[in-house]
Amino acid sequence: MKRSDLAVYFIMGTENCKENPLSVLEDALKSGITMFQLREKGAKALKGEAYETFALTCQSLCKEYAIPFIINDDVELAIKINADGVHVGQEDKPLAQIREQLKGKIVGVSVHNEEEMKLAVAGGADYVGIGPIYETQSKADAKPAAGVSFLSKARTDYPDFPIVGIGGITTNNALEVLRAGADGVAVISAICQSSNRGQTINQLK
Ligand SMILES: Nc1nc(C(F)(F)F)ncc1COP(=O)(O)OP(=O)(O)O
Ligand SMILES: [Mg+2]
After folding, report:
1. pLDDT one-digit tens code per residue, 74-83
2. Which ligand is nearest to the CA of 37?
3. Which long-range contacts (CB under 8 A, 24 or more apart) does 70-77 make?
4. Which one of 72, 93, 113, 201 is most buried, by most CB atoms within 10 A?
5. Where, by residue number, does 4-amino-2-methyl-5-(diphosphooxymethyl)pyrimidine bind (predicted)?
6. Residue ranges covered by each domain of the chain
């Protein structure tokens, strides 16, 4: 994984789209996203066979565009379908165990403070997600918006570590996140709901 892979990190699940999610993903890939995470959440989340088939279809779309395909939370599925990596939070399995299971793959970790950042870096994470930077509509159990202060601190403490900001990021505030030291922005709604994804993605860079 290159730090520039984090530039425009699109995250999506079926609950995030009114349109066909696969059409949204293909349009986003055509429009220049640099990384994709399948984050299947919510009451109507796909499960079992339907979830795996959907994940495989997303994976093959990403392969067509040579874009890294990451699965949120579900380490077992990521291993089973040979995804490019996983993203895990603080409540998931210990990082050491995930790192062992996914040698050579991308492991991203959500961090919210200096202690979590230190443990993620020491534990072999390939990148960290810091947020929510702004109020988010996409994560029901999100912590309060933290602004860019912790992201700036993390960048100062870890000048070369891959960091992506997440949470309520739009074309109107992405620059602030990048100026604070993020390598890129992770976005759900701003891309899912965009009427011109090429323009939106260019304005997130
Ligand atoms: N999914 C995420 N992706 C990122 C990324 F870095 F990729 F931008 N950062 C943070 C999260 C949030 O991860 P988590 O805290 O486990 O919550 P959830 O499982 O609801 O997503
Ligand atoms: Mg998670």
Report:
1. 999 999 999 9
2. 1
3. 70/35, 70/36, 70/37, 70/38, 70/106, 70/108, 71/37, 71/38, 72/11, 72/13, 72/37, 72/38, 72/39, 72/40, 72/41, 73/39, 75/101, 75/102, 77/51, 77/52
4. 201
5. 37-41, 72, 110, 139
6. 3-204
Pairwise CA distance, residues 116 & 164, whole Å: 15
Q: How far apart are CA 154 and CA 111, in angstroms?
A: 10
Could you tell me which residues are beta bridge partners of residue 164?
129, 184
Fold topology of 3-204: TIM Barrel (3.20.20)
Tell me the best of 9, 139, 185, 188 to mutate to test the pocket of ligand 1, counting ligand atoms within 8 Å of each CB and taking the most: 139
22-61 tens-digit pLDDT: 999 999 999 999 999 999 999 999 999 999 999 999 999 9
Provide the pairing of β-strand 106-111 with 127-130.
Answer: parallel
- Residues labelled as active-site residues: 39, 110, 139
- Tell the residue nearest (CA) to atom 20 of ligand 1: 139
Question: Would you say 183 and 162 are in contact if contact means Cβ atoms under 8 Å apart?
Answer: yes
Q: What is the pTM of this model?
A: 0.98
